[in-house]
Amino acid sequence: MPDPSRARDVSEFVRLLDEARINAGRPSYRTIAKRVGPLMRPPRVVAYSTVSDLFKVGRRRLDLDLVVAIVRCLGVAESEVARWRDACVRVHADAKSGGPTGVFRQLPHDLSTFVGHERLLAELVAALTPRVAPSAPATAVAVVEGMAGVGKTQLAVHAAHALVRDGWYPDGQLYVNLRGFDPVDRPTDAATVLESFLRALEVPATQIPADPGERAAMFRDRVHDRRMLILLDNAADEDQVRDLIPAGPACRVLITSRRCLLRLDGAERYVVEPFSAPEAVGLLARIAGDGRIAAEPEAARSVAARCGGLPLAVALSAARLRSRPLWTVADLDSRLRDGGLQKLGSDAVHHTVNLSYRHLAVDTQSLFRALAAVPGPDFDVFGAAAVADLAASEAEALIEDLVDVHLVQQHLPGRYRMHDLVAAHSRAVAVGRADEHDRAVERGLDYYLHQAIRAAECLAPGTAVTHPPVACPPRSGPPLAGFAEAMAWLEDERPGLCAAIELAARTGRTQHAWRLPQALWWFLCTRGYMDDWDAANRLADAAAHALQDTRARAHVAKCIGTASWRTGRGSAIEELTVARTLFHELGDVDAEAAVENLVGNAYNSLGNLREAVEHYRRSVELYRASGRTDELYKPLGNIGNSLLDLGRYAEALPTLEEILDIVVARGIVGHDARARSHLGRALAGVGRFAEAATAFRVSADTAHRHGDRVVEALGLSGWALYRPGDHGMAEDRAVFLAALDLAPVAEHPETRTTVLNRYAVALRRSGDDSEADEILRTALALAIRYGVRRDEEITRSELAELHRATDPEFAAAQFEQVRTIRAEMGMSPDARIVA
Predict the structure, then answer these.
(1) Are 631 and 623 in contact (CB under 8 A)?
(2) What are the residues facing 253 on neighbouring strands?
(3) How does DSSP assign 289-320, residue by residue?
(4) Beta strands at 267-271 and 172-177: parallel, antiparallel or unpaired
(5) Are 614 and 826 in contact (CB under 8 A)?
(6) Residue 276's closest CA among 242, 248, 301?
(7) Is the pTM of this model over 0.70?
(8) pLDDT of 261-319, one tens digit each?
(9) Distance CA 75, CA 221 (A)
(10) Which residues contact 810 (CB under 8 A, 6 or more apart)?
(11) Is residue 6 classed as helix, strand or coil in its secondary structure?
């Protein structure tokens, strides 16, 4: 029985509760619903969907009474029920207070039906048990090798759980399916895995390097001296896993692969052979029932032989027998014999999968084929429902049927996947019905596009192209009622969404190939998934050009240009100019106005305020001409911000206050945080420092809730610089360092320069001129490198003031540069600029 005290958050609590369900014999959600009703206080009828929803991944809150009733109905001892209740209360309290953010316990479920391989299991556990002797190796790497379907993953997972139960690796367990032999998709590259691991280890997305080598170095650093177990499942070759192996003495690595990884230095190899006859019969008995197997020992041994001793084939055959109570074991043996199975290996699995498939109900067969159209490594009920053109409740019931016969695995609460051999069979039977499969693929891509647009509208309204609507909108979808739910769905589905873009491009569905990236750009860029964005961007651009669709090209160019401006990657002005020209040719005045505003932002970032203001004013004119006065807050707000950069704070203040009132009244997500940050600068510029600090603090908190790290960094640094009170530089330093963590050089150089300047001003104020000088020189180098003239002016001004008395010649040179920059930016020579 799992220990509920191990749960670090609500999602992990749900996973442990599902483990308890598995240990109780995996009762269906319908069975649980019937049992829990009388256990509730007061007793009542509990819907099947209420129970199934509780077990879904991504839940933020749980019904405590329902949880306790479920625990009781699973047969948990009454003395243990209180521990489950306390754990449920605790993870909810953690969630309210910000809670733990790392994901340190990633092992998949341990199979309650695991049998066999006792000797190999004992050797593997012994090898991975940490040794205290001085001669112990720095890092133990165990490689479990064997043919497809032989049970490598189940053995590795079972060994890992055994080690954890024995108290080893308390600092966490990382897991990834490397998909080394996926029948369609390419193996997962090490850089992608490293990004996932680093995020799980609580590294902010903005700190994760783009370079794969730097990611590997950071990973080794973060796990050094941590007592962790890393399970790398289904590796293609040595090159795929080499960067995923830490160098520290406290970690152990467990790898599974169909290949012999001889070039992996220092690894100990463990070869998994097919089951012996007694082991295979034992698994048959565990799943189908001891009595039935014991009554027909010869037939049972024949079934085991026909399955080639492969656990996957044995499990599928046993599940088929269990679901047919009137069959004898000899009946099963006869059906396997009639299939003409001649040899072992994947043919045995194929034959047993085919036998299971042929005995499914017609609707369940249809879903099994439709699942071949699901992109990505796994799926939820809504994705399955979409490809099969079913209601979610219908799909969920059929998925449970597939789980019962071992054709689908529930590896996380609410998320499912297929073994790659089973997935290959699903594709084989689906391709045999080409028209049906094409329709399923189309429905799946429509589902992902439809939901991605819904999510984008929750995160940043107006950033996604919402028309035309998809051809086949899904019957149902996940609840996306607000920012948090949309963000959680996108995080869960990100691998599937990226796979959907590749699938669309590969199958010539160019509309999906450009519209999906367009809907996802804000999420990918804001959350720092720049590798995914770069790949999606290339496919979107190619699709738009292949379509020869001017509107599509315009939207893609706008999207790429906006992302380039926000991240400092690529040529923002060039892309935005292309978009503006194309929208003008189309006569789309609203879109042209939006792009003019973005061009202004790009020029503003370069310090060319005069050019920026011209584009903002042009944007205002276009919006007024089209009657879209509801959009005026964007260019007007930017004009106010430009006045800040020109040092005209009193003039900017009323404009910025008006803009804040507008965005708050309209509930425009994201813009309120940025508007408060601009207002903070204006208030500081007119000497209202306490009010400025409040505006920056609220901006940071709001941006944090929205996941906008850029504005959060600006808000934190502004608050630390201007907040009143004698709180000491040590406390301020911690805030500035947190802000810098949110704005790495590679992704947000402009924001980082601003934060560094504010940090230096605070250091000067505290009397630490030496460190202030160092910080300012770092900021100056960044400003020059990335062409951020506004911040270069501030940095040189601060350096000049700092060295006025100690190095007049240096100070004079800085003042001369300041005058030149101010002239370029159209600023008054006597303007006073605040950081």
Answers:
(1) yes
(2) 141, 230
(3) -HHHHHH-HHHHHHHHHHTTT-HHHHHHHHHH
(4) unpaired
(5) no
(6) 301
(7) no
(8) 888 888 888 988 888 888 889 888 988 888 899 989 999 998 888 887 788 888 888 88
(9) 44
(10) 799, 803
(11) helix
